[in-house]
Amino acid sequence: MSSSGVLPPWLILDPLLRGWLLEDIGRGDRTTNTLLVEDVTLGSAKWMAKASGIIAGLPAAARVFQILNEKVSFVAVAAEGAWCERGQVVAEIHGSLDALLMGERVALNLAMRLSGIATLTNIYVEKIADLPAQLVDTRKTTPGLRLLEKYATALGGAINHRMGLDDAVMIKDNHIAATGGIGEAVTRIRSQIPYPLTIEVETESLEQVTEALKHKADIIMLDNMPLDMMRQAVQLIRQEDRRVKIEASGNVTLETIRAVAETGVDYISSSGPITQSKWLDLSMRIIL
């Protein structure tokens, strides 16, 4: 487990959280607004874990309630990024019941989604924990949730790959096809990108690896290579330029990640921890 995940500032997250609240509340919570007077009836609630896993997203969940009513107190009983067992109390909340009820679904959805990602990420990480290779995430994220989903993978022990297209240069197969080759693509880009952006080149063969080395790529991705070819590529790169970082990618699963790590690569990128994760079941119970 890891505590390396860092949430973006509320200046960035608040518009997202407000948008998700507006989506859920619509023109008003017809049930809560009918039964309760706004900011009058106070109460408490507990969040319980209904499955075991790593808890993630509690700060964002707290912010959801506080956007609805700044007086709401959200106390995390479980530490962010910590393992929780089924039946354990995760958080205790106190404040206006209308805010607690209207914020419940958005807050729980976020925490359950992020906790599921952090939990599966950690399972991947543990598969290679005794090896030098490190797990990195990808841009295969849910639209609107990238910042938080990548925060969850970091809590689970992975390293964030580029957050978006403006973070780094990655020359992929379609870029290579569009420009006529790795050499042409690297040459064009190197003359225009600002310092200190790095250049990563996706390769699918030993010939492409050799070309990427020739043109001084900073990172070489070995994409969907058989393990034997991947081992040869790693040896070639290490002999030619030990400065170059090596990333393996392509259909990496829990069953294959260790064999990939044993080839000697520096990084293994996988969308699995995000795209294949299940929500960690949490529930809220009002206590009057």
How is this fold's topology laid out?
Blueprint: H1 10-25, H2 30-35, E1 42-49, E2 53-54, H3 58-68, E3 73-76, E4 83-84, E5 89-96, H4 97-127, E6 134-136, H5 146-155, E7 169-171, H6 173-179, H7 182-190, E8 199-203, H8 206-214, E9 219-223, H9 227-240, E10 245-249, H10 257-261, E11 267-269, H11 272-275, E12 282-287
Parallel strand pairs: 6-11, 7-8, 8-9, 9-10, 10-11
Antiparallel strand pairs: 1-5, 1-12, 2-4, 3-5
Helix pairs in contact: 1-3, 1-4, 3-4, 4-5, 8-9
Note down, in words, how this protein is organized:
Helix 1 (10-25) packs across helix 3 (58-68) and helix 1 packs across helix 4 (97-127). The chain has a six-stranded parallel sheet with strand order 6-11-10-9-8-7. The protein has a four-stranded antiparallel sheet with strand order 3-5-1-12, covered by helices on one side. Strands 2-4 form a two-stranded antiparallel ribbon. The longest helix is centred in the middle third of the chain and has 31 residues, at 97-127. With 288 residues, the protein is an alpha/beta fold. Strand 8, helix 8 (206-214) and strand 9 (219-223) form a beta-alpha-beta unit. The chain has eleven helices and twelve strands.
Describe the structure concisely for a colleague.
The protein is an alpha/beta fold.
Number of helices: 11
Order of helices and strands: HHEEHEEEHEHEHHEHEHEHEHE
Give the overall pLDDT as a whole number.
96
What strand line-up does the widest sheet have? Answer: 6-11-10-9-8-7
How many distinct beta strands?
12
The span between the termini is: 35 Å
Helix vs. strand class: alpha/beta
The biggest sheet, with number of strands, parallel, antiparallel or mixed sense and barrel status, is: 6 strands, parallel
Compute the gyration radius: what is it? 23 Å
Would you identify the regions where 5 or more consecutive residues have pLDDT less than 50?
none
